[in-house]
């Protein structure tokens, strides 16, 4: 397949410097792909999709008419990140994870950053994910955010920005691992000649992080993955990670707390549990502390956790740090705790709860992206340039009614990467979600999940909104 007719347009392209001219890290990949015919590429794409289908790599769609489960669309052309770029991103992600961990511990402890006026007290305490029940919690090894996924984008200049942080129950890493397996099988010759950093050890690294939290029982601690059940959108991932780590996948009904100790029900009786990798939101974790109507959690689990008899990852209350309003303060948070400038900048963000910034947003609504501070999955947001007058009017009303609930950002022309479009390549917008593990030290999985807006011209990459994914190749030096 030829790439000479590939069109860059007015976007930063991940593979091409200009039309007909590849970036250094992409030359070997596209030289290999160029040796394949359009029919061969189409066949390989179909083989990859069939392999993903057989693996059952699905996500649930809520409220749709297409059925409860969908296969995540996959594009066979990998995204390339060169080693020097990745080294910069890795440093910035570690910096961010470290600072956010200190921030969370401070918020639920002495609250020095609030007393010093670096972050407004009312903004923190009004965050939907702030949990007063977690005040004065002592967490194992002082780590709250054991697993995080940080969404990155590039603008037209090639500058990386952090778009948002995900510290509650970040999902998607199973797609990273399975995409890699499928592509290695589908394009083995291409993969073999490329110097790509491995991602296969993520489950073992995750298990190492979880087991290091069992401070009272370092020898063979019992670890489980707690899932809401088969109807959750990320259930495939819960089951996959449990299987890969060699630990039990449990639901709330499989656990019980007795005398402040957590146990798993087995056919041989109760077995003490030391670490729970919970994929359940705080609200549903313990009906005695959070939502009393929850049937997904474990009564008494928070009392057990406070007593130090079980470790939870991520720690309850961690979501306060990925509130989209508090996001605007993260460069100040990094400076406050680490004395450093943020290595990866934020997208400029306007807080609608502040009158001056709200007035600016309302005056420029057709140019802005407006997000609910507690929204996710591409829902509850407005993309101003693509919105109709009624949609703009509706969001104006929403912002005026609940200003704390909304932030706005300028529309960023996301970078693009080539995708297979029939018998040729076309550019589609992408973002990147690297995964960070925080245990005895901080580890960043090389690459992460590249999400791609498969619909031509779309800026929305979320799988729930028609997006797909690519394998992400971080090159060795």
TrEMBL record:
Source organism, top-level taxon: Bacteria
Pfam families cross-referenced by the UniProt entry: CP_ATPgrasp_2
Domain Circularly permuted ATP-grasp type: 78-453
Entry-linked SUPFAM superfamilies: Glutathione synthetase ATP-binding domain-like
PANTHER family (UniProt xref): BLR5612 PROTEIN (PTHR34595), SLL1039 PROTEIN (PTHR34595:SF7)
The protein's name: Circularly permuted ATP-grasp type 2 domain-containing protein
Organism whose genome encodes this protein: Acidiferrobacter thiooxydans
Organismal lineage: Bacteria, Pseudomonadati, Pseudomonadota, Gammaproteobacteria, Acidiferrobacterales
């Amino acid at each position: 397949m030829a790439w000479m007719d590939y069109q860059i347009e007015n976007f930063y392209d991940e593979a091409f410097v200009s039309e007909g001219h590849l970036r250094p890290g992409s030359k070997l990949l596209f030289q290999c792909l160029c040796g394949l015919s359009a029919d061969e590429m189409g066949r390989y794409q179909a083989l990859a999709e069939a392999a993903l289908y057989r693996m059952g790599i699905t996500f649930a769609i809520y409220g749709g008419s297409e059925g409860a489960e969908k296969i995540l669309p996959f594009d066979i052309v990998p995204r390339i990140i060169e080693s020097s770029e990745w080294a910069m991103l890795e440093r910035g992600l570690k910096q961010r994870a470290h600072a956010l961990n200190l921030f969370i511990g401070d918020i639920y402890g002495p609250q020095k950053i609030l007393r010093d006026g670096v972050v407004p007290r009312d903004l923190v305490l009004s965050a939907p994910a702030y949990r007063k029940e977690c005040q004065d919690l002592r967490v194992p090894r002082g780590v709250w955010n054991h697993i995080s996924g940080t969404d990155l984008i590039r603008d037209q200049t090639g500058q990386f920005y952090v778009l948002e942080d995900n510290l509650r129950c970040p999902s998607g890493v199973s797609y990273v691992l399975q995409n890699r397996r499928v592509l290695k099988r589908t394009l083995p010759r291409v993969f073999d000649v490329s110097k790509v950093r491995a991602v296969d050890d993520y489950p073992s690294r995750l298990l190492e992080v979880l087991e290091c939290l069992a401070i009272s029982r370092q020898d063979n601690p019992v670890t489980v993955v707690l899932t809401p059940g088969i109807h959750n959108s990320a259930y495939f991932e819960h089951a996959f990670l449990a299987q890969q780590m060699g630990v039990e996948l449990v639901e709330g009904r499989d656990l019980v707390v007795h005398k402040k100790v957590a146990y798993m029900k087995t056919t041989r009786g109760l077995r003490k549990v030391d670490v729970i990798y919970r994929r359940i939101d705080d609200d549903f974790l313990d009906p005695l502390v959070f939502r009393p109507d929850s049937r997904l959690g474990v009564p008494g689990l928070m009392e057990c956790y406070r007593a130090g008899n079980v470790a939870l990852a991520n720690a309850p209350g961690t979501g306060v740090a990925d509130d989209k309003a508090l996001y605007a303060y993260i460069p100040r948070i990094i400076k406050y705790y680490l004395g450093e400038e943020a290595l990866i900048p934020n997208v400029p963000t306007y807080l609608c709860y502040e009158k001056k910034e709200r007035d600016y947003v309302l005056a420029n609504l057709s140019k802005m992206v407006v997000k609910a501070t507690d929204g996710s999955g591409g829902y509850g947001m407005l993309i101003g340039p693509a919105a109709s007058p009624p949609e703009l009017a509706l969001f104006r009303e929403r912002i005026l009614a609940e200003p704390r609930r909304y932030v706005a950002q300028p529309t960023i022309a996301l970078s693009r990467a080539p995708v297979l479009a029939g018998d040729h390549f076309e550019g589609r917008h992408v973002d990147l979600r690297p995964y960070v593990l925080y245990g005895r030290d901080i580890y960043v999985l090389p690459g992460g999940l590249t999400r791609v807006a498969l619909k031509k011209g779309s800026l929305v990459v979320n799988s729930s909104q028609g997006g797909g994914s690519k394998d992400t190749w971080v090159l060795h030096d």
